[in-house]
Amino acid sequence: MISASGATKVFIATGITDMRKSFNGLYGLVQGVLKKDPLSGHLFIFCNRRRDRIKVLCWDGSGLWICAKRLEKGTFHWPAGDDPGAVELTAAQLHLLLGGLDLKATRGRGWLG
Known about the structure:
By secondary structure, the protein is α+β, with helices and mostly antiparallel strands.
């Protein structure tokens, strides 16, 4: 499971991503499309067209990590968007998304932000 501290930001790339991309390809998307720094230590999440696979790109201080998840059944509830861009999530929202919950159908309490 991916863990993120309170200081770690989570950015979801809206739209679809070619899952054949690896370190350099995802790095380029973070810089060029999302307009973020891939070496910031934040998490950058990408999803394929069928929404059954995701990749997470993260810098840990000494190198880049790519984590991948493939669902055997169902799809991820991914933020819609025709134009590539970034949506920021909290660490709690990331865990809900990875657990298969629809973020639009859930609501947080006042202390969750």
